[in-house]
Amino acid sequence: MSSAPRRFGKSSSSPNPEPCILAMTHRLIIDYDDEVLVNVALSPDEFAEEARLLLAAKLYEQGKLSSGQAAKLCGKERGAGWR
Fold it and tell me: Looking at residues 9-28, what average pLDDT do you find?
C-alpha cells in the first residue's frame, strides 16, 4: 500500500487544471520491551522522540526527505537546529 498523498484534479474544462493534494496523516507503532528502555537509558517519551529524530535524520541523509520534511517528521521547525 502506498502512503503517497492522493491527487485529485479538476476537470479539464476548468480554467486551472492544476491537481490539488489531499494530505493524509499516518501513524507508525513500534513494539519494544522495557529492556530497550533500560539499555538506552531513556523514558518512553524520550525514546519516542529519539526514534522520530533518528528516522527523520536517516531519511534526510538518504535524500528521501527534504530538510523541511525531516524537521516536520520529528516535530521540529526547520530553522530550530535542523539542517
Answer: 68
